[in-house]
Amino acid sequence: MNSDEDRKALITYRLKQAQEALEDAKKLVKHQGSPRSIANRSYYAMFYAVLALLLVIGKGTSKHSGAIALFDQYFVKTGLLPKELSRSLHRAFELRQQGDYEELAEIGQEDGLEAIKNAEKFLGSVHTYLRKEGIN
After folding, report:
1. What mean pLDDT comes out for the span 44-62?
2. What architecture does CATH give domain 4-132?
3. DSSP state, residue 58
4. For a designed S-S bond to 81, which of 70, 75, 112, 131 qualifies (C-beta 3.0 to 4.6 A apart)?
5. In 3D, which of 84, 92, 93, 96 has the Cα closest to residue 124?
6. Long-range CB contacts (within 8 A, 24+) of 71-79
7. Contact, 128 vs 31, CB < 8 A?
């Protein structure tokens, strides 16, 4: 990353990706998409928001599990963001893993709706944190 401007541009890009994924999840709910797809897009909304947060502190990773671990380490364990967000992120990751990789996995409608509700709350908290930090 060359400059602060580049970093801010990438943070903005990641937040846009997060919002797009959340909007996709909402469209799936509205048009009776599969709970598996709703959970997937909800997870990605959170994941992209995590990547934006990690950019703020100069951290990054190419692995989902690594991003989640860094989020927990630098934002939850330090008290910057509530533990509830970590639980939501871990649950969404678990649903996505089941839906994408486990054979015969069933993701229920309630799971999909829970994931989207948690993603909305997650993104709201991330935006609030970034505004407080003068970043967004």
Report:
1. 95
2. Up-down Bundle (1.20)
3. T
4. 75
5. 84
6. 75/129
7. no
Phi first, then psi, for residue 88 (nearest 5°) are: -60, -45
Q: State mean pLDDT over 62-79.
A: 96
One-letter identity of residue 75: F
Share of the chain above pLDDT 90, in %: 78
C-alpha gyration radius of the chain: 15
**What does DSSP assign to residue 71?**
H
pTM here is: 0.94
* Nearest one of 107, 129, 106 to 43, comparing CA atoms: 107
Per DSSP, 133 falls in state: T
| Contact indicator for 121, 88 with CB cutoff of 8 Å | yes
pLDDT for 81 beyond 80:
yes
The count of other CB atoms within 10 Å of the CB of residue 123 is 21
Q: How many CA atoms lie within 13 A of 53 on its CB side?
A: 28
Answer whether residue 109 shows pLDDT above 60.
yes
Over residues 119-133, mean pLDDT: 96
Looking at residue 134, the DSSP 8-state letter turns out to be: T
